[in-house]
Structures are given as C-alpha cells and as structure tokens.
Write a structure and sequence with these properties.
Structural class: alpha+beta
Strand order of the largest sheet: 2-1-3-4
Radius of gyration: 15 Å
Number of strands: 4
Number of helices: 3
Strand content: 15-25%
Distance between the termini: 25 Å
Shape: globular
Length: 115
C-alpha cells in the first residue's frame, strides 16, 4: 500500500519519542520542572493535529506504547460521533495490527485491542 512507508516512518518517530521520554524520566528527579516542560512538549509533538479538538467530550482512538508502560503514543482520531469512532476504530485495528489501541470517551474505555 502507498501509505505503508509513511506509516513506518510515523511509528519509528513515535518510538524515538518514547525513548526520549524514557531517558527524560531518568533525569526527572533531578529537575522536575524541566521534566514537566519537556514532557508537555513531547505530548504536543505526538498530537500535532489535535489542537482545536475538544478532547474532554470527544470519542478518541488512542495508540499506546509497545513496552507495557501506560504511555500514550498518539491520539489517532478524535470525533464527536460514536458511529465515526466505531468505524475508525475498526480501520485502526487493521492498520495498526498488533498494536495496543483503545476507543474511549473520557476515562470510559468502550473498546480495546492488542495486548
């Protein structure tokens, strides 16, 4: 598929961001304010297209880290429609086969896939 090279690049970039966040954690105790600021910047990088979406009320499809930590890699979809969210979740499960995904609204998990 034509999207695969770009997707591989996105996953590679997210892996690098996860490694950077992990390295940053080890420095966090030395300077918690610096850690907080850099961690916030990393979260912005992971979600570059979501600045105008009201995430408090949206249905979100989230891609989680591969290493068993509970770190959010990116929000793939944010929508106010459950129908769109369900269809997008099914597509995301196919596109990100084997990855940990959740469909949630707020703290309520509606569906999940992966380990």
């Amino acid at each position: 598929m034509p999207d695969e090279p770009e997707q591989d690049g996105q996953i590679h970039t997210l892996g690098l961001l996860e490694k950077l966040r992990g390295d940053l954690r080890s420095l966090g105790s030395a300077n918690s304010e610096l850690y907080r600021r850099v961690d916030n910047a990393l979260r912005e990088l992971a979600n570059p297209n979501l600045h105008d979406v009201n995430l408090a009320t949206a249905f979100k499809i989230e891609l989680w880290d591969r290493y068993g930590r509970d770190d959010l890699r990116m929000c793939i979809v944010a929508t106010s429609s459950i129908v769109v969210a369900e269809a997008a979740f099914d597509a995301a499960v196919k596109q990100f086969a084997g990855e940990r995904l959740t469909l949630r609204k707020g703290t309520m998990v509606i569906r999940k896939s992966g380990s």
